[in-house]
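Hi all, long-time lurker, first post. I run a small reading group and we've been trying to get comfortable going from sequence to structure in the token notation. Rather than ask abstract questions, I figured I'd post a concrete chain and ask someone more experienced to write out its structure so we can walk through it together at our next meeting. Sequence below, copied exactly:
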Amino acid sequence: MKIVYFFAVAICVASALPQKQTEEDLPAPGLINKAQAKTPFYEDKCESTGINCLLNCDGIVENGQFQFCGNCSTFLVCEHSVTYYGHCPGDLRWDQTAQRCSEESETCEECYIPPLCTVTGPVCTPNDCTDLPNDFHQICDNCTSYANCLGGELVSMHHCPEGLFWNNLVPKGCVAESETCIECFDLAYCNTTGPSCINSCEHVEGDGVYQFCNNCVQFLQCTSGVTEPVYCPVGMYYDDNSQGCIETSGTCMHCANPEECESTGDICVRRCVGVEDGYYQGCTNCTSYVECDNNAIYYIECAPSGWVWDNAVSACLPSSNTCEECYTKY
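-- Answer (accepted) --
Happy to help. Here is the structure in token form:
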């Protein structure tokens, strides 16, 4: 009787011990539990983990995994703009470039402080793809990342490999030295850059390129009255004499003195493109005149000092019958 009892107890104890599972016994891997995944695993530690991070999937049309702004242990799983949260195991951190959880992340920095820069050049976009063509574009935050725009929407952000910077000139890509991207680029906007500048092509008769009154790193391409702003490469400025971008402009001055006269009369010459070589009345003042030479404009002071240009005699005189300082047409 004791032997039977002992045998029964042994069977009960053995059945209570943990049993080794075979591969067939293990549950098959399944999809994320989306009901649970709608809440982050940890509380948000920071406001940002990098320039590529997202708070949620609102407006993201591209399905995939994205860096989360709250912390580096969590990542976003976006499906049709719906937000789900994934979690990296242990001490791993999400890496947006590698698209995986890694021991060291090249993209995720908890409590990331964004740079003070607000512009990286005249061609950058402030993370807004409105009216931009479907393509990769330079962003204004920094030069190591770039935006993917599709249908006027920002669908994703991408990061250049370490040591490379975004170059917005075709063929676009990440390069060792960018011709278009300078972090904390200083772009001054003005009311005028000189007497030959224009703000739009609306009333311009001849097609061609013109100096822009807003700044010197852009110029305007006029075609049948339609205005198309064009950017110079970084470090170059538009010059009306050469009809192109050069390192030092002889005609364009950032934020030229707005107190200068806009006209000295109906016959004054602002630019020499298409004008026959010769001497003409300038538009800024009467104590100087302009020389047009092979489409280039040069300013020459009258001599003796105090004399003024008279276009009727093509010379400087004590008084002028054609030139009126700060002329206003009534």
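A couple of things your group might point at:
The first strand starts at residue 64 and ends at 67.
The first helix runs from residue 2 to 16.
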